[in-house]
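From: lab user (bench 3)
To: helpdesk
Subject: output format question, protein + manganese (II) ion

Hello, I'm new to running complex predictions and I'm not sure whether the block I got back is the full result or only part of it. Here's what I submitted:
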Amino acid sequence: MTQPAIIPDRLMARIFMLGKVGALEGGGVCRLALSDEDWAGRDLVCNWMKELDLELMTDVIGNTWAIRKGIESGPPVMMGSHIDSVATGGLYDGALGVLAGLEVIEALNDAGIQTRRPVAIGFFTNEEGARFAPDMMGSGVAQGALDLDEMLAVTGIDGKTVGSELSRIGYAGAAPVKAITPHCFLEIHVEQGPVLETENTAIGAVTGVQGISWSEYVIEGTSNHAGTTPISMRNDAGLVAAQIACETRAIADEFGPPQVSTVGMLDVSPGLVNVVPERAVMTVDLRNTDDSLLKQAEMRLNQAAEEFAKAQGCSVTRRCLARFAPVEFDSALVDMIADEAAALGHSVKKMPSGAGHDAQMFAPSCPTAMIFVPSQGGLSHNIREYTAPAEILAGVDVLMRVVLNQAGVVPRTEQKP
Ligand code: HGY
Ligand code: MN
Ligand code: MN
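Helpdesk reply: Thanks, we reran it on our side. This is the complete output you should expect:
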């Protein structure tokens, strides 16, 4: 059998072409979910899918996938990731998983290989959750972890709803929720952390994803004159928000790794130099591979927030924006990734993912695993995100071999016309 050859230049050209969509001045991209930029990126990838004669489908929340027929019908070997980005995104987060899957399919076509099972490549709506929380929204709805109507009604940071934006860009498709349960699901992704680079390792065979807890805290106080109001008479919402932020970091410091915590957004109003803030809105992102520790962290922070607010005569309310328990990937598939990487002569490390991914939504319904390639400086959600072409090629070669194994190659003698 001619081994299908990945063509690195073709893959990198597509990564750079998609990188032009939503390109930022100083590099990187901003393709917030369901924005015009996400729309343009979707159309570009759909055109590439059509050029490969694939059968395209879009479901009710805009997830889109393309299927390369096998000689047998039935659940496909599916690869996939996302096109949407955060506002300071890099060229590789999500895009690599979609375009590498497209490259694997094109290499199969070039080599004239027929597979027993169909092979599919998909992109999923709003993986980032940056505009509309929670993250992994599309894949979560597709796999039944999130409710469609609830998600369509979610209002984003700019006041628009998922449903209205989905219709506006024309990606409210006909396929129902759970339209497709793959034979297995594979996602290649940049690690987005420092582990592979620090350990000089080429491939991550990802064992699972840590738990994720996103909260929004709203603190209400009393605006007052910064000069005339004695400290004892203040209800300073800004102070309470700052105390919550310090407690957020203290939890990570005291729990120690792998606990992480982040205050990504903090807005005080009226936000003027001489006015004691009457209101503060902030987000907290807590993560841990151990769900019981994650729950402890959540409880401790909520309790502290109540106490800080009470001490300042303020009120505080918490809204859950996302909550996903840790997920384990399929150990046999993880082993296969590690074995194929080693067989290709690559160093490989089994490791959990610090970031959330669409793959975690498929894990409960089919064997699922991920392949990591290194992130330079561990940087991601940063316009300087970078992974070298040779490092990408190593990961895509592993992806190809696992897809061939899972899809089954039809010997030339048995090929169908
Ligand atoms: O937040 C995450 O981990 C992912 O980038 N959505
Ligand atoms: Mn991603
Ligand atoms: Mn991301």
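A quick orientation on your result: Residues 45 and 159 are 28 Å apart (CA to CA). Let us know if anything else is unclear.
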